[in-house]
Amino acid sequence: MVMAAPILRWTMGPSSQAGFKVLLRSVRLIKKIYPSFELYICYNGLNKDQQNFLKGFGINLIAQQTKGLNCNPSGVAWKLYPPRIDITRHEIFIDNDLILYKPLDEIDWFLERSNSFIITEGLWRVFGNKESFVPKNLRINSGLFGIPPYFDFAQKINDLCKGSCWEDYFNEQGTVATIVCQNDYKIIPLHTVAICNEGRFKPGTHGTHFCGLNKGFFESWNKYLGYMAYKTLC
Predict the structure, then answer these.
(1) End-to-end CA distance of the chain
(2) Which CA distances in Å does 104 have to 17, 34, 93, 197?
(3) Cα(192)–Cα(206) distance, integer angstroms
(4) Is 210 helix (H, G, I), strand (E, B) or coil?
(5) Under DSSP, is residue 206 helix (H, G, I), strand (E, B) or coil?
(6) Starting from the edge strand earliest in sequence, which strands make up the sheet with 98-100, in order?
(7) Are 41 and 115 spatial neighbours (Cβ–Cβ below 8 Å)?
(8) CB atoms within 10 A of CB 182
(9) The predicted structure's pLDDT at residue 231
(10) Cα separation values, 99 from 36, 71, 130, 134, Å
(11) Cα–Cα distance, 51 to 56 (Å, whole number)
(12) What residue spans define the domains of the chain?
């Protein structure tokens, strides 16, 4: 029996120019390390030039709509719309400012199972109004997470949020973390996919998440570009 290709999806909304550059690099690298994946960019709030830029990536595009969940999207919560592209397949959500340059053992583990989840580790414990729902001492970042086939993500979000809005920036992360932790899951550690923000620069062994870049915090990204240029010269 031939298994359907896993889905990997990015979300792109209004961002700094660097945010689009990181997304382009992220897509190019994923095409190399996961050539069998079916790739999508879900987008919102972009002008025609920005949409045309995305079309040049040569992957599937989805114009996001404010439906699918009981609460309207806001900020980073846009990544949850639509909750699933194809519920029959493994589906991986990845932020536009996160790049992978090596295949992850955790993704292999995830794809070998039908009821398990993966999610990246976080620097801090920040879950908005879902703080009490996430196990103590657990630090999770929703920059990359995976959902198994036939998991009704929309229903779980609606049950948990009960129509509430995404007032706090971290409500989305808390919602995702709560749902993941209610199931079998594996965490992708920080040394594997590192978080670089506010001048912090220590790339992960397999990937790096440039938090804050969409808002204009470029220091860690510029350091990464310099680091890669140095490695090339060496």
Answers:
(1) 46
(2) 28, 10, 14, 22
(3) 5
(4) strand
(5) coil
(6) 98-100, 207-210, 193-196
(7) no
(8) 12
(9) 53
(10) 18, 29, 27, 26
(11) 9
(12) 7-233
**How far is it, in rounded angstroms, from Cα 191 to Cα 146?**
19
**CA distances for 131 relative to 95, 127, 164, 175, 215, angstroms:** 22, 5, 15, 9, 24
The residue type at 47:
N
Q: For domain 7-233, is the CATH number 3.10.20.600?
A: no
Query: What was the pLDDT predicted at 233?
Result: 44
Contact indicator for 143, 95 with CB cutoff of 8 Å: yes
Distance CA 176, CA 137 (A): 16
Spell out where 4-63 has E strands. Answer: 7-12, 38-43, 60-63
Residue 161 structure tokens: 């949020």
Q: Which positions ≥6 away from 168 have C-beta within 8 Å?
A: 128, 129
For residue 64, give both structure tokens: 């996001």
Nearest to 61 by CA among 38, 77, 31: 38
In a structure prediction context, what are the per-residue pLDDT tens digits for the chain, which is 234 residues long?
446 899 999 999 998 888 899 999 999 999 999 999 999 999 999 999 999 999 999 999 999 998 889 888 888 999 999 999 999 999 999 999 999 999 999 999 999 999 999 999 999 999 999 999 999 989 999 999 999 999 999 999 999 987 667 888 899 999 999 999 999 999 999 999 999 887 677 889 999 999 887 777 677 777 776 656 435 443
By the 8 A CB rule, do 220 and 200 touch?
Answer: yes
